[in-house]
Write a structure and sequence with these properties.
Strand order of the largest sheet: 3-4-2-1-14-13
Number of helices: 18
Number of strands: 14
Helix content: 40-55%
Largest sheet: 6 strands, mixed
Distance between the termini: 39 Å
Structural class: alpha+beta
Strand content: 15-25%
Oligomer: single chain
């Protein structure tokens, strides 16, 4: 919605905020007056600690709109429909909570759904199925845990809630650190096992909660206080929240209103401007997320085709932003994407011309924590005219050039001598390094060595240093007007060149 900068859209967003505040104050004024809160027993501590790890799973998958777009290859509106539908379906299942006899069975099924929703390499429809059933399991288990925590007990435990949430918060930061640190540190296990471990942990807490609560209800069946607790608002069939959730579906429907789509251009000039740019996941050198500055750099240099590296499409530590769809919408350019470290981080190509993937794949890893990839695409400039763009990002550890050399050799083999090709990207190596000599030996031409001015340094921290980004071209392509524009929008400077 925020892309539609009109008064009507701004008023609609304001209306949503007003409705949300009205719901909050209505609950505060009415329901909270009659709800009796209890401290609960010590056993509740062992269930409440799941709350923040549960939220981490929501951030990683169930509410991660950018990841859904990347893994289902859908647009923003369709991905929002999928996530909203998953939330609505999951919330609907909570109405089965009234059927006491089925709670344990549903809790077991919910645990299975949640655990298998994080099985890796799911894309397309399989990812959608995982998201819906996983969210059903997640919401049900949270309900079970909160119901146990709110239950009455003769045994009190001061600071139960505070201690449990604090412990859950510590777990949250430890787990998210392990998940993302695995891209810089070699671990004895794959990082996709982290959310699986969290899901198993939540499932165990949920099963413990439902068993303890059932035992408690049995022991105090004749106690009127427990009876009243068991017939509280959690078991009442109030469908108003469900109706409100269904109303949210109007948001993605509005987003289907036609807006500016990538407008392809016909090549009427003698040249097309290509650019390589490591965008540092959208963060500038001051550490702020600043995709607008990235877009302005691309615009100022008139780039028609841009090879992007370090493209994040839903990393939680990067605010779960989809760098690629954001830039595509902002610049009105089409895109293709190839994952690298995981399914939502890798390389991409933006283009004002029709673009089609020729091939893509992974480069030799040789024990490195961070997997690397390449993407080779055809850019259709006119009916019988095209250029080929190969975007790549090589291993980054400075003293491990042997890994980069192996990756370059694999890259040359994948390129296969294809004519009218520009190979662009972050090579993390300087001109005299052995891995760069492999590019020269393959007959490729270094654009900066041919027509560049100055040192062409591309790595920057206020002051640029080291030339590690390159645009290589085949000898059947004429190039001109190479520039390395200074900017602090990323920790790399882009390289732009006109291709005849």
């Amino acid at each position: 919605i925020i892309w539609r900068s009109t008064t009507a859209i701004h008023l609609f967003i304001l209306l949503l905020a007003v409705i949300q505040l009205w719901i909050i104050f209505r609950i505060s004024a009415a329901d909270l007056e009659v709800i009796k809160f209890r401290d609960g027993s010590r056993a509740s501590f062992y269930t409440l600690i799941i709350i923040l790890p549960w939220i981490l799973l929501q951030l990683l998958k169930f509410q991660n709109l950018a990841a859904c777009m990347a893994l289902t290859r859908s647009n923003l509106a369709l991905s929002l429909i999928v996530i909203l539908a998953a939330n609505i379906i999951a919330f609907s299942f909570t109405y089965f909570f009234n059927i006491i006899k089925t709670r344990i069975i549903i809790t077991i099924l919910a645990s299975i759904f949640l655990i298998f929703s994080f099985w890796p390499d799911a894309v397309g429809y399989l990812y959608i199925i995982q998201l819906i059933f996983g969210q059903i399991g997640a919401v049900w288990l949270l309900l079970i845990v909160l119901y146990k925590a709110a239950g009455g007990s003769a045994e009190k435990a001061p600071w139960k809630t505070t201690s449990a949430v604090a412990t859950g918060g510590i777990l949250f930061f430890i787990l998210i650190f392990i998940y993302y640190a695995s891209y810089d540190i070699s671990l004895p296990f794959d990082n996709w096992l982290v959310p699986v471990f969290i899901a198993i942990f939540i499932a165990i807490c949920g099963l413990v909660a439902v068993i303890l609560r059932k035992r408690q209800e049995k022991n105090y069946r004749d106690n009127s206080r427990i009876k009243s607790a068991n017939t509280g608002s959690i078991a009442s069939k109030n469908y108003k929240p469900l109706y409100l959730l269904l109303c949210l579906l109007i948001i993605p429907i509005i987003m289907f209103v036609p807006t500016k789509a990538p407008s392809y251009v016909a090549s009427e000039e003698d040249s097309v401007t290509v650019m390589t740019y490591n965008i540092h996941q959208g963060f500038n050198i001051n550490g702020y997320l600043d995709l607008e500055s990235i877009a302005e750099v691309i615009e100022r240099n008139g780039a028609d085709v841009v090879a992007l590296q370090e493209v994040s499409r839903g990393w939680v530590i990067n605010s779960s932003v989809d760098n690629l769809s954001w830039l595509s919408d902002r610049l009105e350019m089409d895109y293709i994407f190839m994952p690298a470290s995981d399914a939502v981080w890798g390389n991409a190509i933006l283009s004002r011309y029709p673009v089609e993937i020729i091939k893509s794949g992974f480069l030799p890893r040789m024990g490195a924590p961070l997997r690397r990839s390449f993407i080779l695409a055809e850019i259709k400039l006119a009916e019988n005219e095209n250029i080929n763009i190969l975007c790549v990002h090589l291993h980054h550890i400075e003293d491990e050039g042997y890994i980069r050399e192996s990756q370059v050799e694999s890259l040359i083999e994948e390129w296969g001598g294809l004519e009218r090709t520009a190979i662009m990207g972050d090579f993390n190596a300087e001109p005299n390094d052995p891995e760069i000599r492999v590019m020269y030996d393959a007959g490729l031409l270094d654009s900066h060595a041919l027509i560049g001015k100055g040192e062409g340094l591309t790595w920057v921290h206020y002051k640029s240093y080291r030339r590690i980004d390159y645009i290589w071209v085949t000898d059947d392509i004429r190039i001109s007007n190479l520039v390395v524009p200074y900017s602090i929008a990323s920790d790399h400077l882009p390289i732009a060149v006109d291709i005849k």
